[in-house]
Amino acid sequence: METKTRKYLEILKIELEDLIYDLEFSENVLAKRLQEHEITEYVFLENIGLLKKEILGIERIKLMLKESDKQIGSINELRDRIESYFQDEIKSAGLPDVVFLLISRKLEKVCRYMALDE
User: Fold this and answer.
1) Higher per-residue confidence, 63 vs 39
2) Half-sphere exposure for 13 (CA within 13 Å, toward CB)
3) What is the CB neighbour count within 10 angstroms for residue 95?
4) Listed residue (82, 70, 71, 72) closest to 106, CA to CA
5) What is the rounded distance in angstroms from the CA atom of residue 45 to the CA atom of residue 88?
6) What's the domain range around 67?
7) Domains of the chain: total
8) Using one digit for the tens of pLDDT, what is the confidence trace for 28-55?
9) In b/e form, how buried is each residue of 27-57, taking b as 16+ CB within 10 angstroms?
């Protein structure tokens, strides 16, 4: 694997961890809102369930990235593989469509960063 692809992977892994952190923070905000009676328990449970599914989807991408470490030669190939894999995962696992949007944003962010490095 070339150095740029390895760097892309490492930065992407960090970005995905950051995304998981943000979603977990959202869980804490929801818990606080429930405690302060700003939302109902039903709304809280629905939103927590959705956040958990989103986190699960991102964790699946992280596992796929570990498997990809030795299989991908270029950044574009890696990005295409992640997008393709994740579209399939969303459909097969019943994950929320928003997860693909979140991942796509991270993929684009890392690509822009890598372009600055050239």
Assistant:
1) 39
2) 14
3) 19
4) 82
5) 26
6) 3-116
7) 1
8) 999 999 999 999 999 999 999 989 988 8
9) eeebeeebeeeebeeeebeebeebbebbbeb
> Using N-to-C axis directions, what is the helix angle for 41-68 and 75-93, rounded to 10°?
140
Q: Return the DSSP state at 40.
A: -
Q: How far apart are CA 96 and CA 100, in angstroms?
A: 8
User: What is the amino acid identity at position 76?
Assistant: N
CA–CA separation, 77 vs 79, rounded Å?
Answer: 6
- Residue 69, pLDDT score: 60
Confirm whether pTM is higher than 0.90. Answer: no
Segments of the chain assigned E as strands: none
* Sign (positive or negative) of CA dihedral 23, 25, 29, 34: positive
Residue tagged 């991408």 (tokens): 61
Q: How far apart (Å, rounded) are the C-alpha atoms in residues 45 and 40?
A: 9
Name the CA dihedral angle for 77, 11, 118, 72, rounded to a multiple of 10 degrees. Answer: -20
